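Ticket opened by: R.M.
Priority: normal
Category: complex prediction / small molecule

The reporter submitted a protein together with zinc ion and asked that the result be attached to this ticket for the collaborator who will pick it up next week. Submitted input follows.
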Amino acid sequence: MIAEVIINSNVKNLNKTFDYNIPFEMEEKITIGSRVLVKFGNIKKLEEGFVVNIKDLSEWENLKDISAVEEKDFIDEPKVEMAKWMANRYFCNVSDCIKLMLPPGTGTKEVSKRVKEKSLNSVKLVKTNDEIKDDIENKILKSEKQIKLLKFLSENDDVLLTDIPVLTDVSTAIVKTLQKNGYVEIYEKQIERNPFLHKVVEQTHNLKLTKEQKHAYEMVENAIDDYMNSEFLLFGVTGSGKTEVYLQLIQKVLNEGKSSIMLVPEISLTPQTVDRFIARFGQDNIAVLHSKLSVGERYDQWYKIKTGKAKIVIGARSAIFAPVENLGLIIIDEEHDNSYKSEMTPRYNVKDLARYLGKKYDVPIVYGSATPDMTTYHRAINGEIELLELTKRANDAELPKVEVVDLKQELANGNRSMISMKLYEAIQDNLKNKKQTILFLNRRGYSTFIMCRDCGFTAKCKNCNITMTYHLKQNKLKCHYCGYECSALTICPDCKSNNIRYFGTGTQKLEAEINKMFPNATTIRMDVDTVSAKNSHEDILNKFKNENIDILIGTQMVVKGHHFPNVTLVGVIAADTNLNIGDYMASERTFQILTQVAGRAGREKERGKVIIQTYNPDNFSIEFSKKQDYKLFYNLESTIRKQLKYPPFCDIIMLGFTSESETNIQKVANEVHTYLKNKIKTDNIPIILYKPVPSPIDKIKNKYRWRIIIKCKFGDDIIEIINECINTVFSRNNKGISLIVDVNPNNML
Ligand code: ADP
Ligand code: ZN
Ligand code: ZN
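Result attached by the on-call engineer:
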């Protein structure tokens, strides 16, 4: 028997199969999906590979034997098929995709000897830093074992020191040497091998569904009964009881002995969320997969699924790869969340994979959101997705009252602080009444933007109707899409004022100002700087809730799915930050985030109040989020998208080139562009192809970045053209340039 093997490598030229002979004694053990070790080329060391096909004959002669096979920890044939499908669609190597499906921490053949610690209190964990890549490249680090370990650590977070010898066959002595030389850090953490160990959660039972919930439930139930791979959008305002519908659907699937995959955004994988599932189904039925678990913990969860013990998988994006048997339902909660699109190779969108699985196993998919993704809603009103609406809050709590404050007016009145009079008074009231407040300031978009303080004008590209980004180095404004640029403004073209400023206040500055304004109020801040391994975001939220802290100040981490009964006021400090991120999705993100953040206020008896501060009170995404009217927003935004050819009417494919040599990049990018241009002409395909231009952030870590943008309907023909282009023009002579192809990327920087 002959095995077709793909070498575990991300080198583009190795994205093909090599034939190996299966020695007689291994025939029983090797199946499609097996992990094997093989001799490859003249390399002395054995290479790891994956068997992707088995056949009787090979067209090649003198095949080498497979040297060894890993008898545990392999994937099955459908997963291999899925990996192939992904590699083609996302322009990467099959092995890049297979790696996502292997059990966590599968680095070497000795993995089966993994230590099975019982629950631990304080453990030593090892991590590495970013500098190692350069030191490996520049051959400062030579020891193969050391390099192997560092690579392993850079791919896996939170590795137990005691796990290292079995996971990587590198001794702890070597870890200590690396620690001495500053390449790794050994730190302590409270950790449990069973992440639910201390959970004592009171069991809950099915609630009596409201009429709307019941309708939604029954529609999906029918699809489950009929083995239909239909898709559903559960479009329900915040607090409308979407989760209760999920719970009962999962119960139904479980009763039939089938499994469910429940995806939630990484950031809302808090104990709060998980508890609701444990309370309904008990811990034994549930596996949780997310990045905060140690490798060992993730490995345990993986096996709980693989062995069929856990039939409910709750996890972030990558849980779609869980080794689920007998799949019955896929749910994607907060489906608009951008964490569902991977920004690393393979750059997949989890919704594509859900649809792939749904079709393959005839199972329904439920997308849930209060502010659906434009594309999902578009598909729903076009009849591709069944629209299920929940229009009321389940506990009859009223939606909050939203007010918009014009910051220009505030400035005109002489208030130069970040807090408007109205918000100031509302905070004061809340403090008096011992109610809690959340202040939201989104400083995640790092591009500084230029704005006129007198009239709210922001510079936009004349071709794309997109905010231009200020580039400090050249003192220019640039468009992230078409490459159009102009010199920076010192005078506002609309009102001729010279009151043009950078906008750039962070949460830290805000907290200081709040502390000055309200010296007796307690505050807590949650952003990337305050959230760390020791101080997780749920710790901060728990503290806020349990110690009844007066004011929580945070970035968009505060937005997602939390339930604080005592919060009656939410203040949005600057709704404009998201409008100016230089992206066609700016309005959609603003609308989503304002609506979600508003949903945090007044979820119980008392009606909540939301104050949105902005320099653009007339902007439609702000206006419609004030009305909390998604449909109005959708209608207007979709007209704009249609005109400018953005998703959902057109897809955006970004070909990104990076290299240390700008001349080489330009050369290769031009070759690729010429190839695509000719191909489009001869095949007469409706595509808009832009010329290669430097990326908005045109140099990162001394590497230049260029890109080509394509607008078209993403499908088999363009996939084929790009793959062909990569395999011929690009691979033949790429001068060491790396190329990534990203379809509808989350950000265009
Ligand atoms: P969503 O997921 O849409 O934000 P949740 O499922 O969190 O909404 O529901 C909000 C609140 O309403 C929760 O406290 C939940 O227990 C309650 N709830 C949901 N459905 C019902 C129902 N049918 N009857 C009574 N309360 C409900
Ligand atoms: Zn102006
Ligand atoms: Zn432009």
